[in-house]
Amino acid sequence: MNNTSKTTRALVEGALMVAAAEALGFIKLWHMPEGGSVSLMMLPIVLYALRWGLGQGLIAGCALGVIDFMLGGGIAIGWQSILGDYVIACTLIGLAGVGHGKPGARGVVLGSVVGCLGRYLAVWVTGATLWGEYMYDIYGLPMNNEWVYSALYNLPVLVSGVLTTLLAVALIKPMERLPKVE
């Protein structure tokens, strides 16, 4: 495959995966009252990053973050929360590219866990630093610490990460049948 074909293929696959991720983001398995949910939105970006690598994964994640804020009914209290909860958080899903080129389940699990944890850390920090003043009792527990509140409130991201990792592992064999990109 020549360089132009490879670039075109990466761009087309990336656009399709970003679109699939946004579509999956609309299918919420569970939804928090002030935003955040359990969904499979991370799965296409994780799979793309595993296939194309870290750089391409970060770019696709960033595109998803911008599109998700604009189309997904984003909730923000300023430009800082737009960056933290959407652009940075979704970009970090692309960290799944660290599993690129590693064989079998090891690479898939490594990449998926790193990408999903990257997103969780971004929304956790944003929640603690920007949303903390809006704390309320969560899961029946009184809250008085922004960091604990944010860690608990954003647990759906970790649940989504577990589901994403399990499905990514289940898709190892079909992904191995795809044409090699290197």
Provide a concise account of the structure shown.
68% of the residues lie in helices and 2% in strands. Helix 1 (3-25) runs antiparallel to helix 2, helix 2 (42-52) packs across helix 7 (155-170) and helix 4 (79-93) runs antiparallel to helix 5. It has helices spanning 3-25, 42-52, 54-71, 79-93, 104-130, 146-153, 155-170, 172-176, and strands at residues 30-31, 37-38.
Order of helices and strands: HEEHHHHHHH
pLDDT averaged residue by residue: 90
Q: How large is the radius of gyration?
A: 17 Å
**Structural class based on helices, strands and sheet pairing:** mainly alpha
How many separate helices? Answer: 8
Order of strands across the main sheet: 1-2
Shape: elongated
Proportion in β-strands: under 5%
Name the poorly predicted regions: none
How many β-strands, per DSSP?
2
Percent helix, as a range, is 55-70%
Largest sheet, if any?
2 strands, antiparallel
| End-to-end gap | 8 Å
